[in-house]
DNA sequence: GTAATAACCTACTTAAATGCTCGGACTAAT
DNA sequence: ATTAGTCCGAGCATTTAAGTAGGTTATTAC
């Protein structure tokens, strides 16, 4: 079992998509900036998310990614799974052949733990996260910062335009 | 978060000690044989278990390891923790400074998950495991095999003794 | 049609951890 | 004195995460 930034990034990015749903395709550059995740790394993660048909893409200018299903139909477990971070706690993948063909002493314990984790993460959808207060707070902060940055760079280019006149 | 054979080995080995409690010190060689874990690797794991005072050791012939506390006072979480396999799912160690100083979008989600896992593993003691049917079954199988092996090697040495006569 | 944008793809790099092995030193019972 | 055991450090092969770099293709806007 393993849960690193890989799975956390994937969930964060998907949640970012869910939060900005209805605003058209969201570019990875935007997500990268808002969530502080390397753009190239995001590309690799979204390749997997796309292969698992959790997102759909639009190429070209104004393009980006969108959720491929309803928010409430995408669970955290699915996202973590899509980027190959199994929350399976057994070493044998539940086969029970952990100790050269036979069941090891603690096999069932890890099975129980796997069930526990999986049902927990399976029970949480992106829609559930979007309405949480702690998520909303962080999202608001990020959006303010992001839009003000957009404003600043827009102002910059206006000034640059003036300068070139 | 990470749970690999390292933590699983540690719990398995501790459970082995719990199962053979009252039989004096248990050598790592015995555990290695019964549980199919490399002896040298066990040594490294038990160094950590000892440093966390989960076991006490007896050196010299007839020596080995014993639980340092009552079976019911040692939880699976403690054992996993002792070998440095944190079941902490956040990247920031609950600090909330995940995204360059500020809280990331999914921080609270991973906190919840950590709580879930921790309370689950914390609620299971070695005593709980010892009485489980699935554990008993495997333990019986291992003990039969182990004692018959001891018998065989004993017979071997008897025969060897006879041969040398 | 040309430039810009953004998805898409492949390959490489760095760092860390796992799961071992090996060799030896210390300690205590026979 | 020998032997059975714990103790300790170094080293090693493999895997993975996480990120870099460099490019190609599709689409829009000018």
Automatic annotation (TrEMBL), chains A, B:
<dbReference type="InterPro" id="IPR030489">
    <property type="entry name" value="TR_Rrf2-type_CS"/>
</dbReference>
<dbReference type="InterPro" id="IPR000944">
    <property type="entry name" value="Tscrpt_reg_Rrf2"/>
</dbReference>
<dbReference type="InterPro" id="IPR010242">
    <property type="entry name" value="TF_HTH_IscR"/>
</dbReference>
<dbReference type="GO" id="GO:0003690">
    <property type="term" value="F:double-stranded DNA binding"/>
</dbReference>
<protein>
    <submittedName>
        <fullName>Rrf2 family transcriptional regulator, iron-sulfur cluster assembly transcription factor</fullName>
    </submittedName>
</protein>
<dbReference type="GO" id="GO:0005829">
    <property type="term" value="C:cytosol"/>
</dbReference>
<dbReference type="GO" id="GO:0003700">
    <property type="term" value="F:DNA-binding transcription factor activity"/>
</dbReference>
<keyword id="KW-0238">DNA-binding</keyword>
<dbReference type="Pfam" id="PF02082">
    <property type="entry name" value="Rrf2"/>
</dbReference>
<dbReference type="InterPro" id="IPR036390">
    <property type="entry name" value="WH_DNA-bd_sf"/>
</dbReference>
<dbReference type="InterPro" id="IPR036388">
    <property type="entry name" value="WH-like_DNA-bd_sf"/>
</dbReference>
């Amino acid at each position: 079992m393993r849960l690193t930034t890989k799975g956390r990034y994937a969930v964060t990015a998907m949640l970012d998509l869910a939060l900005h749903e209805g605003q058209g395709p969201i570019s990875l550059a935007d997500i990268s900036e808002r969530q502080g995740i390397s753009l190239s790394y995001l590309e690799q993660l979204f390749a997997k998310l796309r292969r698992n048909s959790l997102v759909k893409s639009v190429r070209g200018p104004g393009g980006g990614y969108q959720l491929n299903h309803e928010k409430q139909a995408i669970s955290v477990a699915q996202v973590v799974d899509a980027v190959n971070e199994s929350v399976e706690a057994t070493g044998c993948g539940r086969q029970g052949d952990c100790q050269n063909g036979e069941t090891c002493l603690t096999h069932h314990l890890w099975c129980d733990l796997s069930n526990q984790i999986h049902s927990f993460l399976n029970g949480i959808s992106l829609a559930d996260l979007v309405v949480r207060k702690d998520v909303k707070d962080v999202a608001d902060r990020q959006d303010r910062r992001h839009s003000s940055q957009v404003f600043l760079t827009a102002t910059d280019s206006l000034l640059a335009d003036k300068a070139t006149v």
